[in-house]
Amino acid sequence: MRLDKFLKVSRLIKRRTVAKDVSDQGRVWINGKDAKPSSAVKVGDELKIQFGQKSVTVRVEQLSESTRKEDAAKMYTLLSEEMHKTELWQG
């Protein structure tokens, strides 16, 4: 399954166009490697997604062409969630 479609179907990102943009900006990695929107996602892959000051790492548990809102979270396991502090420049 394409990365952008997985991110949308799993509801990690709400819209496929946003998933594509995030991937194009180099803010998604599959198993530690930069990922493009068309990158293939397989069960067992680890995805790291950078959302502004937060990064989320998940493991892909299942692939599905479509899913109900209640079942979307079953498609992945949350491995870590980190907040990144920003340094304020004081000049």
UniProtKB/TrEMBL annotation:
Associates with stalled 50S ribosomal subunits. Binds to RqcH, 23S rRNA and the P-site tRNA. Does not require RqcH for association with 50S subunits. It comes from Paenibacillus konkukensis. This is RQC P-site tRNA stabilizing factor. CDD domains: S4. Keywords: Protein biosynthesis, RNA-binding, rRNA-binding, Stress response, tRNA-binding. Residues 1-62 form the RNA-binding S4 domain. Key component of the ribosome quality control system (RQC), a ribosome-associated complex that mediates the extraction of incompletely synthesized nascent chains from stalled ribosomes and their subsequent degradation. RqcH recruits Ala-charged tRNA, and with RqcP directs the elongation of stalled nascent chains on 50S ribosomal subunits, leading to non-templated C-terminal alanine extensions (Ala tail). The Ala tail promotes nascent chain degradation. RqcP is associated with the translocation-like movement of the peptidyl-tRNA from the A-site into the P-site. Belongs to the RqcP family.
